[in-house]
Write a structure and sequence with these properties.
The structure is a single chain. By secondary structure, the chain is mainly α. Helix 3 runs parallel beside helix 5, helix 5 packs antiparallel against helix 6 and helix 20 crosses helix 21. The chain has 24 helices and no strands. It is globular and about 65 Å long. It has a domain of 236 residues.
Length: 520
């Protein structure tokens, strides 16, 4: 039998739980190990960069430094001690300042430090978010929120302005992808600012609506600037042939504008669909499954990237489009087959298991709104999961490798979104059939595996007769053929039609399942 706790030393109003909370926790142990790894990795990396002989190579030093930073972030997020959180606050500010300097130095003729500035800038963001999670002092919270808002606004303005400054000159200087990435960072920082302030704050809501209209204006401008001059020239209204604005500057501006427009509209909208979608996104990202999925796919992307680099080194030349060999590979394909069930298996199964589905069905929202909110949240998670693949590709120009044709990635984005919509809708339907997440995941895995087998059947059985009806039919069904065609720069609507209809079909069935449950 354990001895009873001595409560004689407790002050009035203080309970035993207060003492337990002040004791060393797993977060402090993780933070201590993380600090040791950061010091070890930082010193080893400094020795390697200075040209001295070190027993630890640059790769292992960088890996140790990265793992150590993860440990420090874990400590910062879960340790509420005042001294620790204030120290992490100052650390976050220093990282933000260093990131801003790294981004702005090339604009004034300084060295290009974009490769170092990106992770440092993001680390400052995460440390400040961890600080805001624990801090109770209103003045310090306001200061940290203001830092996030200011950094996000500056990054957004500089990123958009850089993409507008002329694609030809930026392509020659190699800064176009820098500005685009900086614009994405600005969106991430601004979303963190809005999340910390909350949409009940009047200033935050008005800022979000301003961002909504700014994103819409940027998207419309990029669309008109890309389409109007070639159209006027083809109709004979202008004599001078216009330059190519859409690739890549116009497309990047449309992506930035669309992301700002959609994100700001989602968080500031008062529609039932937007509110439920935000609820589902919060449920996804507050669960450990989302982070396991991201870590797993990041590792898969790393393995695929290593194989991709090895293939480029052995070939000795860039065979365009080189990105096709990067995406159409066993590692990313099998990773997607496993990851889609992990994303969708809890969307409706967890609601049924916990009993909240009955409450949701009695709320004044339609079954279609519930299904669409689950679907949009799952699709957003699916698109976020693909981000590591794009980030690894940024390492090529940053390392000084020859430029490659990344225009096929534009068409691949649309093809991947259409096929992903079909995947998520199918998983959502299977999740609506049972309250057991494992059964839902297994059914979705079987569906994904069936779609993969379609491509094998088409190639192995009907490959000898490419013009035959079965070959053509299975080509429309196979998502690998859609990926392959889009990575060649071919965006054929008829190949996207099946997958769009596939998503609508599964969503329709899911709505009918919920309608049957409402009237039971």
């Amino acid at each position: 039998m354990e001895p009873a706790m001595d409560t004689s030393k407790l002050s009035p109003g203080e309970g035993p739980s207060d003492i337990v909370a002040a004791e060393p926790t797993l977060a402090r142990v993780t933070g201590s190990l993380g600090a040791a790894l950061v010091i070890f990795g930082g010193l080893a990396l400094a020795l390697n960069l200075s040209g001295r002989v070190a027993s630890v190579g640059t790769g292992w030093a960088s890996f140790s430094l990265a793992i150590g930073m993860v440990g420090l972030l874990f400590h910062a997020a879960f340790d509420a001690d005042t001294q620790f959180r204030r120290a992490y606050m100052m650390f976050g500010y220093l990282l933000l300042v260093f990131g801003v300097i790294a981004f702005t130095l090339p604009l004034f003729g300084g060295p290009v430090m974009f490769g170092l500035g990106c992770p440092v800038f993001l680390l400052g963001f995460f440390f400040l978010l961890a600080f805001l999670r624990q801090e109770t002092d209103p003045a310090l919270r306001t200061m940290a929120q203001g830092a996030l808002g200011l950094a996000g606004s500056m990054a957004a303005v500089v990123g958009m302005t850089g993409c507008l400054a002329g694609p030809e000159s930026l392509r020659a200087s190699g800064y176009l992808h820098h500005f685009f990435t900086l614009g994405l960072f600005g969106l991430v920082f601004l979303l963190g600012y809005f999340a910390s302030r909350g949409m009940s704050d009047d200033f935050a809501w008005r800022s979000a609506r301003l961002l909504f209209w700014a994103g819409l204006a940027l998207f419309v401008y990029a669309l008109l600037r890309s389409a109007a001059p070639p159209l006027l020239y083809s109709l004979g209204f202008t004599k001078a042939r216009p330059g190519d604005f859409f690739v890549p500057g116009g497309f990047l501006l449309m992506v930035l504008g669309g992301l700002y427009f959609a994100s700001a509209g989602l968080i500031s909208s008062e529609s039932k669909l937007a509110i439920l979608t935000l609820r589902e996104l919060g449920a996804i990202f507050f669960s450990p499954i989302a982070y396991f999925v991201l870590v797993g796919f990041t590792l898969a992307a790393w393995l695929g990237y290593i194989g991709f680099i090895d293939q480029l080194a052995r070939s000795g030349r860039n065979i365009e489009p080189i990105v096709r060999g990067y995406v159409i590979d066993l590692v990313p394909v099998f990773a997607i087959i496993f990851i889609v069930p992990a994303i969708t298996m809890r969307l409706l199964s967890e609601e049924q298991r916990s009993g909240t589905l009955e409450v949701l069905l009695t709320a004044p929202v339609s079954e279609l709104t519930i299904v669409l909110s689950k679907f949009l949240a799952g699709l957003a998670m699916y698109l976020v999961v693909w981000a590591p693949f794009g980030l690894y590709l940024l390492a090529l120009p940053l390392a000084g490798a020859p430029a490659f044709d990344y225009r096929p990635l534009m068409s691949f984005f649309f093809g991947m979104s259409f096929t992903g919509a079909g995947f998520i809708a199918m998983g959502l339907f299977f999740s609506s059939l049972t309250r057991n997440q494992i059964i839902s995941g297994v059914l979705t895995f079987a569906g994904m595996l069936s779609l993969f087998i379609v491509a094998i059947i088409r190639e192995r059985i009907f490959g000898q007769n490419p013009g035959g009806p079965w070959y053509q039919l299975l080509m429309h069904v196979s998502f690998l053929d859609v990926w392959n065609n889009t990575l060649e720069g071919k965006l054929v609507p008829k190949f996207l039609l099946f997958h769009g209809s596939f998503a609508v079909f599964w969503l329709f069935l899911t709505v009918k399942v919920l309608e049957s449950r409402r009237w039971k």
